[in-house]
Specification:
Length: 416
């Protein structure tokens, strides 16, 4: 006789200990969103609060929640969506090509300086691979910066365009480099060839997304966009799964597949209906999975190592290197922006936490960074998102740009 038994996840929810941990993680996720806007004049980065609340409920503080296989699965799924939205952001922001090119050149300067910093730190006994430190120090938290710049009225100005160009490069290239370095399966030459092949497959998928749009399929997508069918959302999630699987099968880290999926889906959503689909995807990602990833990161955070004298000192060193390594790219914009706004760009560009958390998490799993060093690096990233945008806003604010400058920036974005 047929009998029904509940699936493992449901059993976990019904089990007191695992269910309590999941409930507390979801409570921390909701609390992070509320506490970040608790005062109308003080807006804190949600990701920082999520990590802090994860520390509070985790074994380093109250020890009322533990990381179990079910939370680990959801957190990994959240990490996939984090990189997916990084790719989606690159397409959605519609940054002028000239700004992206200059931002890429600036990132080249940053990664070179980051490599020197990584080698120096490794030589002084810092327990982390030099290339991981280099990439982590050369990231930019574009998703964190955009709402801050928009609220301050900086986004449509030449400084805002410079931040977008710097931020796109600071998200795209670190993901590519970290994927290649973390693979280490075939050898450098073979991996570069495979990367080109993978890029060709992604480009083909993007071409299909842009051109192959059968009328009947488009009709189904439109008809289900406000119904329980949600065909466009389901196809987008399938693209994420397919490209993540392809990247892993080829030998790259899954983050490259997730990022590529964001690029493909971002191109496909370039229509009025696409905005609705993006909102639904954001509900899944930022409303559910991504906060779980950051709360679980807090639960795994090595707070004891950070709060030692050496841990705090190393966090301070990393914070200085973040500003020097990533801020150096602002030199390429100094002629157009002037010294003051170029300095503001340096602080904006050095703001980096989400990708740092992801890189440390992936590197820790591969033995490329110790938990104590990772804690100091994440601690520096947390300080950067709390302090650097505020400092950059104060420096880059002030008198409006010369007549015509803002209009020219708007025109550049529109023409792109």
């Amino acid at each position: 006789m047929w009998s029904w038994s509940p699936p493992p996840l449901l059993l976990a929810v019904l089990t007191r200990h695992e269910g309590r941990s999941l409930m507390l993680v979801l409570a921390a996720s909701a609390g992070g969103a509320l506490l970040s806007r608790i005062h109308r004049r003080i807006v804190l980065p949600t990701v920082v609060i999520e990590i802090v609340l994860g520390i509070v409920i985790g074994p380093q503080a109250l020890d009322v929640a533990t990381v179990n296989p079910y939370l680990t699965f959801l957190a990994n799924f959240g990490l996939v969506f984090l990189f997916f939205f990084a790719g989606l952001e690159v397409i959605e922001k519609r940054v002028p090509r000239a700004a992206v090119v200059r931002g890429t050149a600036g990132w080249g300067i940053s990664i070179a300086l980051g490599g020197l910093a990584g080698l120096a730190l490794h030589a002084f006994g810092v327990d982390a691979e030099w290339w991981l430190l280099a990439v982590a120090l050369a990231t930019t938290a574009l998703g964190t910066l955009v709402p801050i710049l928009a609220d301050a009225g900086i986004l449509p100005t030449p400084l805002g365009i410079a931040v977008l160009g710097t931020g796109v490069a600071g998200e795209f290239w670190p993901i590519v480099v970290i994927s290649v370095f973390l693979t280490g399966v075939y050898g450098a030459a073979a991996e570069v060839i495979l990367l080109v092949v993978f890029g060709g497959l992604v480009a083909a998928a993007a071409a299909v997304a842009l051109r192959a749009r059968p009328p009947r399929v488009l009709q189904v997508l439109r008809e289900t966009i406000h119904t329980t069918g949600q065909a466009a959302v389901r196809i987008s999630v399938f693209v994420v799964a397919a490209l993540v699987s392809l990247a892993v099968d080829v030998g790259f880290d899954f983050v490259l597949g997730a990022f590529a999926a964001g690029l493909v889906v971002g191109l496909a959503l370039g229509s009025p209906e696409g905005e609705v689909v993006r909102v639904r995807l954001e509900g899944i990602g930022f409303g559910f999975l991504i906060p779980i990833y950051f709360v679980v990161t807090g639960m795994n955070f090595d707070l004891d190592s950070l709060l030692t004298a050496s841990g705090l000192a190393l966090a301070g060193v990393f914070l200085v290197f973040l500003l020097v390594v990533r801020g150096a790219s602002a030199l390429l914009w100094a002629r157009d922006l002037g010294r003051r706004r170029a300095l503001a760009l340096a602080f904006f560009g050095a703001t980096g936490l989400p990708l740092i958390v992801a890189i440390v998490g992936i590197g820790d799993g591969r033995g490329a960074v110790s938990p104590s060093v990772g804690a100091s690096l994440i601690g520096a990233g947390m300080i950067s998102v709390l302090a650097f945008p505020l400092i950059g806003g104060r420096i880059g604010g002030g008198p409006p740009s010369p007549p015509g400058t803002v209009r020219e920036a708007d025109t550049a974005v529109a023409e792109y």
